[in-house]
Design brief:
- It is a single chain.
- By secondary structure, the protein is α+β, with helices and mostly antiparallel strands.
- The protein has two domains: about 260 residues, 3-Layer(aba) Sandwich (Aminopeptidase), CATH 3.40.630.10; about 210 residues, Alpha-Beta Plaits.
- The chain is built from eleven helices and 25 strands.
- The strands form six sheets. Strands 9, 11, 13, 15, 16, 18, 19, 20 and 21 form a nine-stranded antiparallel β-sheet that branches. It has a six-stranded mixed β-sheet with strand order 1-2-6-3-7-23, sandwiched between helices.
- Helix 3 packs across helix 11, helix 5 packs across helix 6 and helix 5 packs across helix 7.
- The chain is elongated, with a radius of gyration of 26 Å.
């Protein structure tokens, strides 16, 4: 039996080979060729599919070839980020790794342990003396940007597999057993716009909010800056401040809670003071409502350059924003503290009469997923909006009879003497698509400890490599 030191050194040897090949998301041709070459050099059958995924078949070792098939799965792309002042071309430069005590990091860039270390662990296991039944190693493209690889993987590569172990998690003492499906879209509407009738222009801005990931932080009840602007404008209208809407912008991504937003309106000069009063009242109301959650709320009103055009009647637009569901819809009954379903209004872009709002709906239950999508679609139709650019990924629903999960929990307890935490995340994973392709396959997601991925501070805890490797090897041996 290999020592932890030997396991870590074996995985690091493979990781160094991966790090030497540029593999930024969207540019994975070289790394895909590397995996194919690596596989064939060890006598394993390997192929690339139409989108660049690599599928490697490894025969059984010291186990019957008739044993059930296990899929080991990772993604081959990485998020490339360099520290300020660091010269780094992600399309041509290798990632330079640095051993720092018990940690592995990169020299001024992101490390790519997400998910290169998962692949390295698998490569090391498959070329070691560890016994296993038939194994299919699948590494996909563009998980970090679009999940294109998982989305286009042929079902034949998953169907028939008894187990699938995704090695893309980032806590070695935790196994993920469920994830949310995601549905993103744009709600688009064109409203009549013409030269403004009002003489003055004002900019209303909401700033200082926390924002954050709409899956991992939606349960914290943070204020949505886009909805906050809409509320200010709605209150202004109901307070007798006539205005026209020239522009409205907010948010940076559909999967992020908007932290900032602003709108430019035209109004009579005599109404500016009343608008300022409405904004101040809204700030007071929000500060009270979000006390302890949002402590940096800023709502300001200032002069703006006169716009060329404005929407005369923004009421349908404001009603659509404020009537759309935003936030937590339901919590999981099986896993305490887990959000089951949610919706996020992530972006707003209104200019020259064209309005577009970006949404991200998440759910780990298919029924509620469909309820939230229909709710948005019905509201859009009622307010004169069309749903465009819709795309989604499947939910990975929790399975109570997951035999693979039981095997993982048992092996971890046997190896460490501690209980492994089983949990779910309110974000999308490739496993959702694999579960849809093969509902009978038992699936879990595990991985070594990786901190601050997607940043120059990304690092991997070396002892956790042995923990994850031994866990996978124990499950494969059974």
């Amino acid at each position: 039996m290999r020592t932890d030191k030997e396991i870590i050194e074996g995985a690091l040897s493979e990781f160094e080979k991966i790090a030497a090949v540029p593999h930024k998301s969207g540019h994975t041709e070289k790394i895909a060729d590397f995996f194919v070459s690596w596989a064939r050099s060890h006598g394993f059958a390997a192929r690339k599919d139409a989108v660049g995924n690599v599928i490697i078949d490894v025969p059984a070792k010291d186990r019957p070839e008739t044993a059930p098939l296990t899929v080991l799965q990772t993604h081959m792309d990485m998020v490339c980020v360099a520290a300020e002042g660091k010269a780094f071309d992600p399309l041509t430069d290798p990632v330079v790794t640095v051993a720092d005590g018990d940690w592995l990091r990169a020299d001024g860039t992101s490390l790519g342990a997400d998910d290169g270390m998962g692949s390295a662990i698998i490569m090391d296991i498959l070329t070691s003396d560890a016994p296993h039944g038939p194994v299919r190693f699948i590494t996909t493209v563009d998980e970090e940007t679009s999940m294109k690889g998982a989305e286009n993987l042929d079902a034949k590569y998953i169907k028939g597999a008894k187990n699938l172990i995704n090695v893309d998690s980032e806590e070695s003492d935790t196994v993920i057993v469920s994830s949310a499906g995601a549905f993103s879209c744009d709600a688009v509407c064109r409203l009549a716009a013409s030269a403004p009738k009002k003489a003055s222009a004002a900019r209303i801005a909401v700033n200082g909010l926390k924002g954050g990931h709409s899956g991992m932080m939606i349960h914290e009840g943070r204020l949505n800056a886009v909805r906050a602007i809409a509320a200010v404008l709605k209150d202004a209208k109901e307070s007798g401040v006539p205005f026209e809407l020239a522009s409205f912008k907010g948010g940076k991504a559909k999967n992020a809670i908007p932290a900032d937003a602003e709108a430019v309106i035209t109004l009579d000069a005599a109404d500016v003071a009343r608008l300022e009063g409405v904004a101040a009242a809204c700030k007071t109301r929000f500060a009270d409502e979000y006390k302890g959650v949002e402590d940096g709320i800023s709502i300001t009103v200032g002069a703006a350059p006169a716009p060329a055009s404005a929407i005369k009647d923004p009421a349908p637009l404001l009603d659509f924003i404020l009537e759309s569901f935003d936030g937590v819809y339901s919590m999981s009954e099986e896993i305490e503290g887990l959000v089951k379903s949610s919706s996020n209004l992530g972006t707003a872009d209104v200019a020259e009469g064209l309005a577009s709002f970006g949404f991200m709906i998440r759910s780990s239950e298919t029924k509620e997923f469909d309820v939230l999508k229909k709710r948005l679609s019905d509201l859009a139709a009622d307010k004169g909006f069309s749903i465009e650019n819709a795309r989604g990924s499947s939910a990975w629903e929790y399975k109570k009879d997951n035999a693979l999960l039981s095997a993982v929990l048992s092996a971890y307890k046997e190896q460490s003497g501690r209980e492994m935490k089983a949990t779910a995340i309110h974000a999308g994973l490739e496993t959702g698509m694999f579960a849809a392709l093969s509902p009978d396959t038992d699936i879990v997601s595990i991985g070594p400890d990786v901190l601050e991925p997607h940043s120059p501070k990304e690092r991997c805890f070396l002892p956790s490599i042995a923990v994850t490797s031994r866990l996978i090897a124990a499950v494969l041996a059974k």
